[in-house]
Design goal:
The complex is a heterodimer of chains A (242) and B (378). Chain A has 242 residues and is α/β, with parallel strands linked by helices. Chain A contains seven helices and ten strands. Chain A has a single domain, classed as P-loop containing nucleotide triphosphate hydrolases (Rossmann fold), CATH 3.40.50. In chain A, β1 and β2 form a beta hairpin. Chain B has two domains: 204 residues, no CATH class; 159 residues, Barwin-like endoglucanases, CATH 2.40.40. Chain B contains 13 helices and twelve strands. Chain B is elongated. The two termini of chain B are 37 Å apart. In chain B, 35% of the residues are buried. Classes of the chains: A alpha/beta (242), B alpha+beta (378).
Chain lengths: 242, 378
């Protein structure tokens, strides 16, 4: 579960070009649910996503996560379920939380050119210090899951739009995070691929994952597996449609 | 700890694959870097080698050499001076020497002919230096003829060649018997090339030299210190040229490092942004860049050093030789005895590898401290 309490985020504060992207949002996002943040461009969706995903800190307000966080309970073995406030964590710990809790799918996919599909998928696991062959096994299993088994050694430049998108999702899942965050994932996809993406989200939900998607695409917000749509405008929640 | 080692291994793996991804860029970087190290290391090896050869040469030089003078220039010395010099208090020994130069038009080289004092050579026998042996393709048992002062050819039998301890000393050297020397150069038996004097107490060398100068006004005593000074100034001059070479190479290196330091390509910056966004820490990105810098640097350094070693000690510094070597003894193709000073190699290492690595890290650090969400906002 992720809780936001009166969260604000401003950029370039105190300068002539200052602007506030998120102006005081209080929101609770339940685990194992698919939530869509909907709204026009500039409504603050992406900023809210980056705050939820521990990529940026709010200017004010608090964000808490409930989960199992390795290295935070001081003892070896499986950590207990606990709630931590991430807004006050130092960068190193915040990164650790992010590595283990969130998988990110970006609008542009952001795969690294020149590397193979398999190498791209394994990238988020590199700093975790896991054995290479263990990560590789997991990456290959994910590729099989998304029908990319035969493309493991292909360079990402050679992939079709759909393959690139599935590779990006596989990369987001390599560290087995409980939460998947996607920012406008269907912006560059046609309807067929957009529906395919939502099918994958349904699959992840079935596997117990939480998904938070920022999108203004009706194909996303009106999909059957979406549990909740949060409408945003001018950095505020506009009201929750029924 | 195991996790940390494993993560560093993974980062290193990623670094190597990154280097291979940018083959063209890294190959050209490696080429320039290797070239700079090669020039620096060649200059260093060369200068060091020459100084060492000179030191070996001076070790054998007598404390005082007395030359005859005529009209202010060198003249063979009468052997009657020998007894006069020996009578000076403090002189341990005084011996005449026979040595001279011979210009060989066949090889276009000057040879040094010397009658050894510590070795007996008789009749027509000669012992030759390696350089001469190479140039003239003569080996023990062959006959080598020189044109004498009277215009006739004087044949000598090669008895042996020198071991290559120091080619600067022996490359063009020919050891010859006293009668062979005198007949070739037409030097009368009562004259010698010069007289070498050893002194019992090294602190009295100057006093003895002054007494010789007073006793034999037509002779000139030369001290080892003076020879050392001459060598020093010769090497300092050459050192000056090397210094110019070094400064230019360092400047080239500074430009290379500055170019690297002044920024990353848009592609590299984007890649760092992605890595941060998918969960890499700033320190992970910096570690990857340090490994990258180290790898390029270390590879170029080693390669440059090895090529320089080969250049200086196996091709006799073919690129520098025309400007830096002396005359006479060096006309035959002489090779510097291989010698590497670990201290200087370490200095070169700290002048190249360390600043280059730092130059690689700074822009990466600047790119890596961006917020991880930067990728989402662009």
């Amino acid at each position: 579960m992720i809780r936001l309490l009166d969260v604000r985020k401003g950029f370039n504060l105190g300068k002539p070009n200052a602007f506030v992207a998120v102006s005081g949002i209080t929101l609770t996002l339940e685990a194992n649910r698919v939530t869509v943040l909907k709204g026009p461009s500039g409504s603050g969706k992406t900023t809210l996503l980056s705050l939820v995903g521990c990529m940026a800190r709010p200017t004010s307000g608090r964000i808490t996560l409930t989960g199992r966080f390795p290295g935070f309970n001081g003892s070896a073995g499986e950590p207990d379920l606990r709630e931590i406030e991430v807004t006050s964590l130092p960068e190193r710990f915040l990164t650790k939380v992010r590595q283990r809790t969130f998988g990110f799918v970006f609008q542009q996919f952001n795969l690294i050119g020149g590397l193979t599909v398999l190498e791209n998928i394994m990238l988020p696991a590199i700093p975790l210090g896991e054995r290479h062959d263990v990560t590789r096994e997991r990456a290959l299993a994910l590729l099989d899951l998304f029908g990319l088994g035969g493309r493991a050694d292909a360079r990402v430049e050679w992939l079709s739009g759909g393959e690139a998108q599935r590779s990006a999702i596989a990369r987001a899942l390599i560290n087995d995070p409980p939460v998947v965050i996607a920012d406008e994932p269907t912006a560059h996809l046609d309807s067929k691929l957009s529906l395919e993406f939502m099918d994958i989200i349904a699959l992840l939900k079935d596997r117990g994952k939480t998904a938070i998607i920022a999108s203004h695409d009706p194909l996303v917000s009106e999909a059957g597996m979406v549990d909740r749509v949060v409408a945003m405008r001018d950095g505020l929640i506009d009201g929750e449609p029924a | 700890m195991t996790r940390w080692i494993e993560s560093q291994r993974n980062i290193l793996d990623y670094t190597l694959s990154s280097l291979l991804r940018r083959k063209g860029k890294n190959a050209s970087l490696l080429f320039v870097y290797t070239l700079v190290v090669f020039i620096l290391a060649s200059a260093m090896f060369f200068l060091q080698g020459m100084k060492r050869e000179a030191a070996l040469l001076l070790r054998e030089t007598p404390e005082i050499v007395v030359q005859g003078m005529l009209q202010g220039r060198y003249d063979p010395i009468p052997d009657t001076h020998l007894e006069k010099i020996r009578s000076i208090r403090g002189v341990l020994s005084a011996e005449t020497r026979l040595w001279g130069y011979y210009y060989d038009p066949v090889a276009g080289a000057n040879y040094t002919l010397l009658v050894p004092r510590d070795r007996t050579i008789t009749g027509d026998a000669i012992v030759i230096g390696n350089g001469l042996s190479r140039v003239r393709q003569v080996f023990p048992g062959d006959i080598l003829s020189f044109r004498g002062r009277d215009g006739t050819n004087r044949p000598f039998v090669v008895e042996g060649t020198f071991p290559a301890e120091s080619e600067l000393v022996s490359a063009d050297l020919i050891l010859v018997s006293a009668e062979g020397f005198r007949s070739l150069f037409g030097l009368p038996p009562s004259r010698a090339t010069d007289i070498v004097v050893t002194v019992r107490n090294p602190r009295e060398v100057r006093t003895v030299a002054r007494k010789i100068a007073e006793m034999l006004p037509e002779a000139r005593p030369i001290l080892r210190d003076e020879i050392a000074r001459t060598y020093d100034s010769v090497f300092d001059w050459r050192g000056g040229i090397v210094l110019v070479l070094l400064s230019m190479s360092l400047l080239a290196f500074a430009i290379l490092a500055w170019d690297k330091a002044s920024g990353l390509s848009a592609e590299e910056r984007r890649e760092i942004g992605i890595l941060k966004a998918i969960g890499w820490e700033t320190s992970d990105v910096i570690a990857a860049k340090v490994y990258e810098g180290w790898f390029v640097s270390f590879f170029a350094f080693t390669l440059g050093l090895l090529i320089a070693y080969w250049h200086v000690f196996f091709t006799s510094a073919a690129l520098f030789a025309p400007a830096l070597k002396g005359w006479s003894v060096l006309y035959p193709d002489f090779r510097i005895t291989p010698f590497v000073d670990p201290y200087q190699v370490a200095v070169l290492f700290f002048l190249t590898v360390v600043p280059y690595t730092a130059a690689t890290v700074v822009p990466s650090w600047r790119a890596a401290i961006v917020d991880p969400d930067a990728v989402m906002r662009t």
